[in-house]
Amino acid sequence: MPEKFQDYWDKNIDLWGEKYLDISHGHEKFNRPAWFTAAYNATIGQLERKLMKERYRRTIELMDLHVKPGSVFSDLGCGTGIFVVEAAKRGASVNAIDFSESALASTRRNVEANVPGANVKYVQADLQNVDNLPESDVSLAMGVTPYLTSIDQFTKEALSKTHILCVQYTDPYNWASIVRKMIPALDVRSLQCYDPEYVDGLYTQHRGLLYDRRKFASGFIDQVFNIEKIPAQEIG
Questions:
Q1: Strand order through the sheet with 219-226
Q2: What is the model's pTM?
Q3: Which superfamily does CATH assign the domain made up of 3-235 to?
Q4: Could you say which residues of the chain have pLDDT below 70?
Q5: Quick check: 156 and 133 in contact, CB under 8 A?
Q6: What are the C-alpha distances in Å from 106 to residues 14, 58, 101, 128, 153?
Q7: pLDDT in tens, 74-87
Q8: What is 22-48 written as a DSSP string?
C-alpha cells in the first residue's frame, strides 16, 4: 500500500470511531493548506457524508442478504470495524483485515464495546499484495479499491478465498472522476479509478461471475460469485 494512503488513514481513522456515519466525511485532515481543508469539508465533504450514509445503507442490505448465523465473513479494509460489528451481530465468525494498525485497533475497540465475546480474527495485511487471506463465505470490500494502485492481485486473492465478493469501485468515466483529474487539488484522497470492462476481465480471469452491478456515487458496487464455490442453484 503506497505511503500516501497509509498517511491518510493514520491521520483520520481515529476521528471516525463509532461515529463513522456522522463524521467520517466533513472533518477529515488532508495534506492541504488549512483554508483549503476547511473549505472542502464545509462543501464537498458534506455531500460525501450523505453518500457515506447511503453506502452504509446499501452495505447493510448486502449483509442482510448474504451474512447468516454460522457463516464466515471477511471485511477487507475493515476501517473502524462498523461492518465487523454488524456481521458479528448476525452470528457470523469474522475476519477483520486492514493494512493499518490504527484501523485494527479501532475495530478491536468497536467490537469490545458492542459485541464483546464475538469470534473475530484480526489480520494486518496489504490487500494490494496479499496472498494469504483467510477463507470466508462472504467478503466485503467497501472503500478499498480506490486506494489500490493495482487490483490484479487483490481480485485474484479475494475471489479465490470467498464464495461471494461484494466490492466497490470508482469509475474513471464518471463526471466527478473526470473533474478530479482535471483539477488535481480536488482529489484529496488520490483515488484510483478502474474501468468496468477491465474489472470484468479480471473476474473472468479469476473464475468470478458478476451477479449484480449497481451505480453508486462516482462508481459502482458489484456482487461477484466464485463459480467454483457457489452451488449452481444459488447462482441461478
A1: 120-124, 93-98, 72-76, 136-141, 162-170, 219-226, 208-216
A2: 0.83
A3: Vaccinia Virus protein VP39 (3.40.50.150)
A4: 1-31, 36, 40, 231-236
A5: no
A6: 7, 23, 9, 21, 26
A7: 999 998 899 999 99
A8: HHSSSS---SS-HHHHHHHHHTHHHHH
